[in-house]
Amino acid sequence: MAYVRPVSKTCWYLKDRNYTIHMLNELTSVFVGLYALLLLWGIGAVASGPEAYQYFLKCLASPGMLVLLWVTTIVIFYHAIAWFKVTPKAMPIQKGEEFVPGGVIAGAHYVVWILFSLVVLFLAGVF
Questions:
Q1: What gap in Å lies between CA 80 and CA 72, rounded to an integer?
Q2: pLDDT band at 55 (very low <50, low <70, confident <90, very high)
Q3: Least C-beta-crowded within 10 Å: which of 45, 49, 55, 69?
Q4: Pick the CATH number of 14-90 from 1.10.645.10, 3.90.1680.10, 3.20.10.10, 1.20.1300.10
């Protein structure tokens, strides 16, 4: 009799919490990609002239787009936080014989994120 390898079900990742969280982390990259496409659309609208840019802004102000932008913002924050948690494991830093604690590495990423955000807000004229 020939060996038949069992085929895993499509929801295999729902059986283990760690796998489910990993799949959610991977799913967030779809929202990052969609936001990148939105930015490219905006750049194209600016390059196409004032009428195209006004149409782009009008589309952004629609209720459905506002909901999508808020959901995308929340998901991207989750994406960034999830990756900052993984950073100490993916990028361990050794100082002498000891490794820098993971909290320090992740904390440095949060500090840089906040500083860049403040610079962007300053350049945008928010304060």
A1: 12
A2: very high
A3: 49
A4: 1.20.1300.10
